[in-house]
Amino acid sequence: MAKIKTAFFCQNCGAQSPKWIGKCPSCQQWNTYVEEVVEKTSSSLSRKTGLSASSSPIKVQDIVLKQEMRISSGNAELDRVLGGGIVSGALILIGGEPGIGKSTLMLQIALKMEKVKILYVSGEESEMQIRMRAERLGLTQSQCYILAETSLEKIFLHIQELQPEMLVIDSVQTLQTEVVESGAGSISQIRECTAQLQRYSKENQIPVFLIGHITKDGTLAGPKILEHIVDAVLHFEGDRHHFYRIVRAVKNRFGSTNEIGIFEMQGNGLREVTNPSEILLSHREEAVSGV
Fold first, then answer.
1. What CA–CA distance (Å, rounded) separates 116 from 135?
2. pTM
């Protein structure tokens, strides 16, 4: 029986070491190294994921320019933050604190895009729980398909059968692939699953949304390399004890990072705030004589 090879990975930046280190030499963080099984190589990766082996080199002047295809999310606030809509083949990571409304936002968008076939994959909720939340949002008739699954190989099988036009993963920390032997949520699993989803997104020109959790210090859970793989990183911010939420882009290959989207959490979901001045000025006190 072959000996299982292990290594130590930094849970903050993804750096690898053959032995445990107290302080990471890459990100300078303390006590972040965890032992994990080193991922095995697999010559059958294309067969498992349905991806082609590789593309052929081509001269830059021979590349055929195509018009940038963008899909409207049906949400003006999110479209503006993304730079005018969802770009075909984009891999977008949206992060936020637990319970802030990430899943509600993405499910609401998936249900609103009635003309787009969407596969919403949840590793945290059952189909019945999502149906109950969809009814609360008041949106039940759509082209949105729900799948409760965490195995990436099984997800790709359903993708090949369904052929969706957009994919939502809730959340990336729950995914697990057979290529890596460590448990779900580990550095190796997150990195490999994201890489496979990136290949699928680019080769099929399908936009993919990844929902991710953030740590106590406000950074996205998982290695920093995750933020380098994706095309856009959105932060969903707010206070669970207040109604308003903000979406801002900290990275966007297809648009500006100077835009923000404002939402109000209501009983039937998130409402777009098209006039932020109305909110910001509504609580101002009236001018007092002599002041």
1. 20
2. 0.83
